[in-house]
Write a structure and sequence with these properties.
This protein is an all-alpha fold. Helix content is 67%, strand content 0%. It is flat and about 65 Å long.
Length: 235
C-alpha cells in the first residue's frame, strides 16, 4: 500500500469507450449484429467488423459463438421470435396457418436485410421448434397423418419464407429502385405490343393493382386452398 492508502498497482483499464470483453454476451452480440446488417447490409457482417462495433477483439465474440454461422442462426432465431411474439393458435386450423404466415411476413418486412440473410436457414432453436409444432398441430387438426403433416409443413413454411424474402429483397432496395419497379407496371407493361403479347396486353391494366399485400394473400390463399382440398380427400 502507498502512503495515501491506495494500491501501488493501477487497475487494468480497457481502451477508452470500449466495454471489457467480459461484458459481452449473446444478446448484446446479436443486437449489434442486427443493427450492423440493418444499417449497412448483409455483406457488412464479418467477425472483425462485429468486434469493432462491440468495442472488442473479434476473438472475444468467438467465446460466445463458435463461428459467424452460429451468429446467423441466432439472427434467424431472433426473426422467428419476433414472428411468434404473442402468437396463440386459433380454433380453426386454417386461421392458425394464416396467422403464422402473416406473422412471418411482418417480421421479415420489419427486418428486410436480416430476412435476406437468414430466410433460407434452418435455425434449429426453440422459436423454430415452437413454430414447427404449431404448424404441424394445425395440419393434424385438418386431418393429416404425421407423414403428410411433415411434408406440408415443409412446403407451407418454405413458401411463406420465400414469398416474404422476395418482398424483403424489394424492401431493402433504395427508394429510387423501388419506385422504378413500381412504375414499370404502369408504364412499360401498359406499353407492350398487343400484336406481340396479346394476353399480356389484355391483363396489363390490372397488373399494378396486384400490389405486395394482394400478392401475399393470393399466394397464401392458393396454397391453403390446395391443403384444404387434400385434407378433404384424405378423410
Amino acid at each position: 500500500m502507498t502512503e495515501s492508502g491506495t494500491s501501488a498497482e493501477p487497475k487494468a483499464r480497457g481502451r477508452r469507450g470500449r466495454p471489457p470483453s467480459t461484458s459481452l454476451n449473446q444478446k448484446l452480440i446479436l443486437d449489434t449484429a442486427l443493427t450492423l446488417v440493418e444499417r449497412e447490409g448483409p455483406d457488412a457482417l464479418t467477425l472483425r467488423r462485429l468486434g469493432a462495433d462491440l468495442g472488442a477483439n473479434h476473438t472475444a465474440v468467438l467465446r460466445h459463438f463458435h463461428s459467424k454461422d452460429e451468429i446467423l442462426l441466432g439472427l434467424a432465431e431472433r426473426l422467428l421470435e419476433d414472428a411468434l411474439d404473442g402468437f396463440a393458435p386459433a380454433d380453426s386450423w386454417r386461421e392458425t396457418l394464416e396467422s403464422l404466415a402473416r406473422r412471418v411476413r411482418t417480421a421479415c418486412l420489419a427486418h428486410p436485410r436480416i430476412a435476406l440473410l437468414v430466410a433460407s436457414r434452418v435455425a434449429r432453436r426453440s422459436a423454430e421448434f415452437r413454430g414447427a409444432d404449431a404448424v404441424i398441430a394445425a395440419l393434424r387438426q385438418a386431418g393429416f397423418g404425421d407423414r403428410d403433416a411433415a411434408r406440408y409443413y415443409r412446403s407451407l413454411v418454405e413458401t411463406a419464407l420465400a414469398v416474404s424474402a422476395h418482398e424483403a429483397a424489394f424492401a431493402a432496395l433504395d427508394s429510387g429502385s423501388q419506385e422504378g419497379d413500381r412504375m414499370a407496371w404502369r408504364r412499360e407493361y401498359l406499353a407492350v405490343s398487343p400484336t406481340l403479347y396479346p394476353h399480356l396486353a389484355a391483363a396489363a391494366p390490372y397488373l399494378a393493382e396486384a400490389d405486395e399485400d394482394d400478392q401475399f394473400e393470393t399466394t397464401l390463399g392458393l396454397i391453403l386452398d390446395a391443403v384444404e382440398a387434400r385434407a378433404r380427400a384424405a378423410r
